[in-house]
Every structure is written in structure tokens, then in C-alpha cells.
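Schema walkthrough. Field components (list of strings):
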Amino acid sequence: MKQKMINRNLRKGLTHYGWEGALLGLLVVEILLFGLANPRMLDVNTLLFSTSDFITIGIVALPLTMVIVSGGIDISFGSTIGLCAIALGVLCQAGIPLPLAIGLTLLLGAACGLLNAALILYTGVNPLVITLGTLYLFGGSALLLSGLAGATGFEGIGDFPAAFTDFANLTVLGLPMPLIIFLLMTLFFWALMHRTRTGRNVFLIGQNARVARYGALPVQRTLFALYGMTGLASAIASIVMTSYFGSARSDLGVSLLMPAITAVVLGGANIYGGSGSVLGTALATLLIGYLQQGLQMIGISSQVSSALSGALLILVVIGRSASLNRGLIRSVFQRYRRRWSASSSLTS
Amino acid sequence: MLKLIQNNRELTALLAIVALFGLLGAMDSQSFSFQTLGMIFGSAQILMLLAMGATLVMLTRNIDVSVGSITGLCAVSLGILLNSGVALPLACLATLGVGIAAGLFNGVLVAWLRIPAIVATLGTLGLYRGLMLLLTGGKWIEGLPADLKSLSAPLVLGISPLGWLVILLLLAMFWLLSRTALGRSFYAVGDNLQGARQLGVPVNRIRILAFAINGAMAALAGIVFASQIGFVPNQTGSGLEMKAIAACVLGGISLLGGTGSIIGALLGAYFLTQIDSVLVLLRLPAWWNDFIAGLVLLAVLVFDGRLRQALDKNLRRQKYARFQPKTLAKKSPTKPSSTRASRRMKANKSGLSL
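Field assembly_structure (string):
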């Protein structure tokens, strides 16, 4: 009896968390494979501290998951990161105390996100198109600000106080600071998405925005919150990156755009909205990040690793697509077999 | 007036171009000339080619974010072929082949394997970029032969051979999209997939064809890039995919498929390049470029979005007017709805995202 209960719970867990389980398995296999090639990869400290190089992908991918689940998308966060970093640098140069500067940067990030939401709701135009426009606007503002502040494109704005540059290299309970931020955010967004009414609303809006509106769900408020959180997370990512690299540049976030969307998709979110998982995104971030790190560690150049992560995305998505359209594939297969057997019986 | 703009969305891009030239003429009357027009056309060719390809893909209600990588991959393969002594025409053909193959792969992923277009091309974006860097080993390709550069030298009327090719392609594609059954089926697939299938349009083949032509255009853009610059840096083409999509959106091509014309995409591409050139002529620092491009793009989008919403509201009022009490209906006399606008409204209704 008890065994049966456990079995049922196990099956329920598998169907609920099947994709996350698969990702976790892939992650373990990946780390072990790299460990075979280079034992240093299996060192716990290496595993923990190499996350600082890529964890900002996850910091923006988490709220982005919610945006994508709600049926929208935000591609402007890369530029928002650049804008926030430059703003932080300019504020520090102007002699504004650090806590205030950080607060203002966070506000700026949230304002960028809210502007996205306002434009999307005001015009009713496809979010991809609107955020493409704000991608140029925010990126242009970052360039403008850094140009007006007299910073060159390659060096950016440096000379931050040491207290700030040490921040990203702090360890708490033996864990690096960026990883802690990421874990806390994962917990927060997991609870928000899968354990609150707001989270259910996000799924429902993604399933059918029209019905959600007729059902008197607070669609506008929810969307404002989602895009605002994405902007806020971009600001957090920009602060972490600026602190980690020690300089603020306008192109800090450009390299995050594609990996973050990849993490969301790999994490099991439907790009058309309606389904997705915060936990999956978090695991996919680690999967992508360790792939880059591991390839670097066994001496494969970063050029090949970009090709490999692209190929990985395609393969995983083909696999998912195949498992989702299982009935279709079976019917096509049977049709071909019937045709083949019919033609062979004709010839014989 | 509003109706005219709504039915001919290219006009907004054209207006923007004329306004920008007007600004240039007012600020600095010497630099505005026919030569300036030609010069901007010269530097807009790459974006124009990419926008033409992106138009086809967007008409079928898909999106391709991998074109920048295809452009880079093709420029690199052209450089490697030429430097290893292959004749120019043969190398160009092979480059086109590479582009078409890359586009076909995208198309197969989307049409046959049923992967959402943005996800599939996001994957190939990394894949093709990696292949390109693998081919070069991360180095720049230099020392390209002189006959490649002569392809971009002025030939007739100050326009280079490749420039004439772009114009020829434009005319061909305009004819294809507006006058042939094949061209119209691109619109049909994007407007209503199920309906197109029932009309007998080979839906999957059309979508794959759109991606393949897009790949070919990206390959041409790579050739133009190599011949204009004379060398191939290892970040060739990155960021171009967003610019191509922005050009199409500016020109009135809907991401929801089925609306827009090739002329609009071209005007959009021309405008985005024109901003850069005009800023140089006005002696403004280069860091204004993206800011102004973003502002204009957003202004066009907001204007277009509001216009469309107003039209929709108007249509709905007409539809339900006869169910309202007579006195109310008399107060607001309505015109009969146009078939074109109602079709567009249906296209809007069917898609919520992407």
C-alpha cells in the first residue's frame, strides 16, 4: 500500500517535473563528461566559482521566463543592462554616494521595463517589435550617455570605489555573491510563478489573453509588473557585471541576449506563451554556462563552443518537438509503411 | 489621409526619408545632392538585400534572426575560396550555395520539424557564427583580390555592378510578389495557414523557399560586404539581423504575416542607413545614431498601432450599429466598411503573439 503511494507520487513527480529532471540529468552527465576530460572540473570550488562568469544570464532569464509564459517577449534587456551600467558609472563619476547611485540605477532599470509594458499595452503592437524599438532606444541612450560623459567605447567608465568592485567577489557561506543573488531570485520567482495567484494569472494570460481579460484578470497590472521586473533584473545584472569586471561599458549586455532566450527555451517554456518553468530556466542556465566553461577548460576555443551551444539548442528542441508531436510522427510513419507495403505487394 | 497611409504603409517610411533629407537640406544645403542619394544607396545595399530576404520570411509569418551569421559565414567562405585561387564567378556561386544551404536548413527546421522560427534560428545563429569562426580560426581574412573590389566600383550613373544587381533583384521580387501566383502564396501562407493549405498552396514548400531565398540574399549581402570593405573581420554581420527586421517593420511589414510590400522594406533599410550618413554630414557625433533610429522606429510603431486600433474600433462600431436603437445609430452615420480593412482586422485577430 505504502509502496503504491510512493510509486504514484513518483509518477506524479515525473510527469510534473519530467523536463526539469531531464535537464538535471543532462547537467550531471555534462559535468561528469567534462570531469573525465579534465579532473579540475569536478572540483567543487571550480564548479562554484566559475558560475560568476555566466550567472548573470540566469538573473535576467528568470523574469524573462515569466514574460515569455505570459505570451510576450522582451529583447531589449541587453540594452537595458548597458544603459544601467553606464548610468551607474556616470552617477559614481558625478560623486553621488554609492548606495544612492545603486538605488537610482535599479529605478532606471525598472523604468525601462515599465516603458516597454506601457508601449505594448498602449499600441497593441507585437511585443517583439516594440522591444526591438526600445532595444535601439536604450542601446542608443547608453551610447549617448557614455559619449556625453566622455568615455571611450572600449574602456568604458572605470575607477569605482574598491568596496564596490569587491562586492561581486564576496563569499557568503562559501558561495560567491552572484550565485547567492541568483539562488535567491530563483526562489523568489519560483514561488511567485508556481505558488501564487499572480503566477496562475501569468499562465492564463499566456494561454489566452482575450479570455483572461473577459475573466476580469488584472492583465494590464500583471504585464506592467512582469516587464518592470525584467527591467529591474537587468539593472541587478548590470550592477553585478560592473562590479565583477570593474568597469561600466555600454555593450555589457549585448552578449547576454541570445543565451538568456536560449536558457528560457531550453528550460521548457513555450515561446508562444502559456507554459514554462522557472526551475527549468535556472537549470538550463547552469547547463549552458557549464557547457561554455567546460569547453574552455578542456581547451576548446570559445568559437567552437558557440557553435556547440547553438547545435545543442537545436537538438534539444527537435527532441522536444518530436515528443510533443508523437502522434503526428507515428501517423506519418504508418502512412509511409502502408504505402511501402502496398507498393511491394503490387510488385510481387 | 489616414486611410491612404493605412493602406499604403510604405508611405510612412517614405515620409521619414523625405523629412530627413529636408532637415539635411535646411541645415546644410551644399551637402544635399543627387550624389548624396547615391552614396547612401551604396552603403544601404547590404541592409537592403537582408531586408528583401526578411520580407519573404516575415510575409509567411516567420522570423529569421540568423541572417547576420549567414552573412558572416558567406563572406568568410568567399574570402577563403578567393584566397585559395578559385576564380571569382565560381567563388561567388559557391558562396550563394552556402547561403542557400544555410537558409534551407532553417526552413527545414521550421517547416518539417515544427520548431518555432525564432527558436530554430536562434540556434542556427550560434551554429553558423561558430562555423564561421571555425573556418577562419578567429582571424581576419585580408588581401582579397582586386577584381572583387571592382564589383563595388561605380559603373554607370555612379552605381556599382552590385548596386545594379540589387535594383534588378528588387524589380524581380516586386514582380514576383505582386503579379505571380507563387508570390501571392507567400501572403496566403502568412495570412491564414489553414486557408492557404485548403486553397492548394504547398504550405511547407513555400515556407522553406522563403528561408532559402533569405539565405541567398544573406549570401549576396556577404559578397557585397567583402567587395566594399576589401577584407573580412571576424565579427562580420553580427547585429545585422535586428537591423534587417527593424527595416522591415519600419516599412510596414507585419510580423503577424500577410501584409506589407517589398518597397516598404527597401525604404526602411534606406532610412536606417540614411540616419548614419546624415548625422555624419551634419557633423553630429556617431553616438546619436541608435538613439535617433530607436526614437523614429518607436514613433512609427506607436503611430501605426494607434491608427490600427482606431480603425478596428470604427469597424466594430459599424458592425454592431444595426443592433443598436435607431436613434443612436442615426446620431453617428457610418460608412460601409471596406473589404481590405476587414481582411486586415481578421489577420490581426488570429494572432496574439509573434
